[in-house]
Amino acid sequence: MATNDLNEQHREKAKLIKVLSETGMQNVIDVDALQKMQDNIAEISGISIVAVDAKGTPITQETSFTSFCKLRRTMDDCRSNCFFSDAYGGLKAAMKNMPYVYRCPAGLVDCAVPINIYGIYLGAILIGQVKCETTGAKDLENVMKFTFENISSEKAEELYAEYKKVKVVKLERLKLVANMFRLIIDEMIEKKVEELLRKRTEQENDNLEMKIKNLSIKEKVTKTTVSSSHGSDFLRNKFLTNVMNSLGNLSIIEGAPRTNELTCLFSKMLRYNFETHGGFIELEKELENIKNYLRIQQISSSD
């Protein structure tokens, strides 16, 4: 592959990472579409599903949550542990870049499907809240080791009654739903990222066009100012030259040869300054101007 193509890919990847780092998961994923998909899959599979951000905070409404988990989330200790468990599972899935199956603090089996793009972890889809009484389920990591809950005996009995109602699901079925969700999420994100990049490119192009327009306006204003300035200098110089010519003519009429000579010399010096301002000066003209200046000084000092 050509070097230019690789550089272009790196630029596009850098632009994508910048877009993802500046926006949250809710802006990368169509939450409404995800909610509908989540509801349909939960209804078919009978498995609880919710989408959370990188902190474990839900961004969709929980679907098919068990009465046991709903009851736990009404208790402060249990609710904070549930959110921690969701965040932990999502992070582990992001690190492995694949669905991660584990046990929540209550002992139920959950699976986190990571939403991880170019090393940026945006969140996860959490499915589960089931019992898995298979050999493989016994070796799953239990988040309970990181948590502590102070539950009264009354609440414990109520929770246990709801716990017994939790359905048993084969671990393979849970993983199957997780992999299906991963494919769906990847496709959703790919479309959304393309849309974000397109909007970002359009915005950058609009900003560039605005800068070019502003520079063009500024350039026109500068040219107009310079032109106006040059026009003012021309009129001022012409006025002074006309005045000196009038003085020279008046001195001849009044019979004042020295005044006429002084006026002519000064007029030549003015013309020299007007014509040679900011440009290259020939040595012959420079010497002539010096002679005119010295002659003016000579006439002035002889008065």
Describe the fold and architecture:
Helix content is 66%, strand content 10%. A 4-stranded antiparallel β-sheet has the order 1-4-3-2. Helix 1 packs across helix 7, helix 7 runs antiparallel to helix 8 and helix 8 runs antiparallel to helix 9. It has 2 domains: 199 residues, no CATH class; 84 residues. With 303 residues, the protein is α+β, with helices and mostly antiparallel strands. The longest helix has 83 residues. The mean pLDDT is 79. It contains 9 helices and 4 strands; from the N terminus they run H-H-H-E-H-H-E-E-E-H-H-H-H.
Summed up:
The chain is α+β, with helices and mostly antiparallel strands and 303 residues long. The chain folds into two domains: 3-201, no CATH class; 218-301.
Could you name the ranges where pLDDT drops below 50 across 5 or more consecutive residues?
A: none
* N-to-C SSE string, H for helix and E for strand: HHHEHHEEEHHHH
Overall pLDDT level: 79
Give the overall form. Answer: rod-shaped
- Distance linking N and C termini: 89 Å
Helix and strand layout, with pairings?
Blueprint: H1 3-22, H2 25-28, H3 31-45, E1 48-53, H4 67-72, H5 76-96, E2 100-103, E3 109-117, E4 120-130, H6 153-163, H7 171-253, H8 257-276, H9 283-301
Antiparallel strand pairs: 1-4, 2-3, 3-4
Keywords:
303 residues, alpha+beta, 4 strands
